Amino acid sequence: MIPRLVLTLLACGLPLLAQEEKCPLEAIRVSPDGKSFVRGSSNEPFVVWGVNYDHDSVGSGRLLDEYWEEDWETVVSDFREIKDLGANCVRVHLQFGKFMGAPDKPDASALACLTKLVRLAEESRLYLDVTGLACYHKKNVPKWYDWLGEQERWEAQAVFWEAVAKVCAGSPAIFCYDLMNEPILPGKEATDDWLGGELGGKFFVQRIALDLKGRTREEVAEAWVNRMVKAIRKVDNEHLITVGVIPWVFTFGGGKPLFHGPRVGKQLDFVAVHFYPEKGEMAKALEALKAYEVGKPLVIEEMFPLKCSQEELVEFIDQSAAHTDGWFSFYWGKTAAELRAKENPSIAEAITASWLETFQANSNR
């Protein structure tokens, strides 16, 4: 029996060695059984092998939307290098403050840059995981944003998502919209800070409410997810939607998923979790991962040998393949060769160079 991919290539009139490079890029969707990803109408299985592209180089810290306007050629070069790594997907992180001039006014220049990025992704044949509402650099968070009440803040976030989705709608290069990186909720006591703790000068964790006000955590999370999804679906009914979460089941050693539970996650198309397994705890991480098997595709949206060896992380990838439909690591604008060519590379740079080589060697999954 001739594989469907071969038939597709023949239909395009291309030699097999050309692979799919000149065939139309097909949008990614959930398989008919709801448990994996496939390409467009061809139903070819699709497994994510991607990178987070959040800042430009190890030690620099500039976020993508802080340099893409004046340094576009760097972005083009980085996408070429990401493709050479064997990746098929890029996760980009968009800062709310860079995209919103006022609660109801998206920034035209930021949307123009996003339009260019989508076109670049199409040309590079790289899918985009568009993660939004980032407040990673406090200097870019508008004062008026923090002054808004909960519902007003949600409405401003909905305006952001409608504007972003309007740019992305119709492009086959959009893999998904990730509503927010690692959203959290308040505990029993109210708080006055929308952001979680600082890590390396950035604030990756964000609250969607400051006070439960007698509501359950599920009620708040469900209402927020529904509002964001409604904004996206107003202009884009096709592309996938998810929320990338901290796997609290792994962190706390038990419990059930909140955002990807049956109530909150009913409008989300797949599960996205961020795993950094610790040395000697691969079995624990794999057991926690099973808690996120909810009958939908499951993607490990962040991973890196931060707390374990590279060999252990590869083992985690191998053993999680039975439960997982894709993995994202990181790329920070420098190839392994560039990092190794430095006269005195730091420990972080040496680890990154070695991991990039390992990532590339494992790209044929």
Q: Helical residue percent?
A: 25-40%
Low-confidence stretches: 1-19
**CATH level 1 class label:** Alpha Beta
* Number of beta-strand segments: 15
Q: Tell the overall outline.
A: globular
Structure notes:
- This protein has 365 residues and is α/β, with parallel strands linked by helices.
- The protein has a single domain, classed as TIM Barrel (Alpha-Beta Barrel), CATH 3.20.20.80.
- It has 13 helices and 15 strands.
- The chain has an 8-stranded parallel sheet. Strands 1-2-3 form a 3-stranded antiparallel sheet, with no helix packed on it. Strands 6-7 form a two-stranded antiparallel sheet.
- It is globular and about 50 Å long.
- It starts with a helix and ends with a helix.
- The model is unreliable at 1-19 (pLDDT under 50).
